[in-house]
């Protein structure tokens, strides 16, 4: 009797200590009190949304329910050929991942095999099972042959002796290429963000890996912010921007800003896509950010930018919330300018872009050469027409306009 209760109380103490080492005393309580959000039930569902079937939470993570104020979800989109990024991303993120995968027609089958491989064969499968929620979506006009319920599909054994089904795929053979379907990137972005259990999200691209420890650091940072002081809430909405870098294919991804600075000096790292679209990624005060020596390891805001003025083409990736303006689902990856309407809305709403120091994103190793720059598709012309004629008028009706905000 005595021994059992002794064991129990030491377990209680252990949990308590773990919790403190995870999140500073009081941070969670503060966030619970001041973050205005409602937790939701974690479950799978199927629905038709616009011209797509969306199988939300087809794969559910073992983490189960999560209070909305207590964590941050990385929300992202992909087709199955990008699933090699899941484990390297989770090894660094170690927090919930909400992933929308576009799987039209016969692309559905290799998508399922890729998922099974990640869940059963990959050395990192524990992380995938623990943290990864997967949503599948496809056009109502391009249904897969069979879609079984997840309970059935996910019980199938994967072929662990073969290569990962997402590797060395000939893109031209994919159903999507053979049927010249555009990649509905914003549909995926919105599906993944809508499914987030947490209020705070990092809506990003799956090849962008964050610095380790970012989520607990960010929660502490939020706890220290004015959200804990009534009457001192910021008047403008704000998000926290992560700067993006690329590294050579043969080096490992830097974990800290000093490591990154060394690699920038040696040329092993460079700011993201500088020679492809400088205006999209530079953001204000990049050189100063790179130059500044690190005095504290804590997350802090280095400088504040706005979308207007000289940064009209800036496409920052940021830690924000599920309530930030959505992505326009008519815009596709091939059409480009896919984040422009969200950016316009954020400009009109006068969002502040607080650029973080001591945290950043690094693209999967390998520096893109201008040679293999993003192809210009004929769809881009169509997008420009759509934005100029239709979307920009709608955006002005919905959000209004403001000096310096252009679309
Ligand atoms: C930690 O939390 C406990 C219980 O909520 C509280 O009594 C204590 O004062 C807190 N300590 C600090 C340093 O905030
Ligand atoms: C598994 O993959 C290996 C290697 O590609 C292949 O030889 C084998 O036939 C596959 N097994 C099944 C059951 O498909
Ligand atoms: C966020 O959720 C994951 C999965 O449950 C957990 O491992 C992690 O510790 C959580 N992060 C924080 C800061 O509580
Ligand atoms: C990586 O490759 C570059 C050339 O592509 C070479 O200059 C550099 O020394 C290599 N670095 C390492 C760590 O192997
Ligand atoms: C960055 O540092 C270098 C060398 O110390 C200096 O020449 C340069 O002016 C600095 N640039 C900025 C923008 O601070």
TrEMBL record:
PANTHER family: FI01434P-RELATED. The gene is Dmel\CG15483. The keyword Signal applies. GO terms for molecular function: glucuronosyltransferase activity. This is Uncharacterized protein. Keywords: Glycosyltransferase, Signal, Transferase. Pfam families: Glyco_transf_49. It comes from the Eukaryota. GO terms for cellular component: Golgi apparatus. Residues 1-22 form the signal peptide.
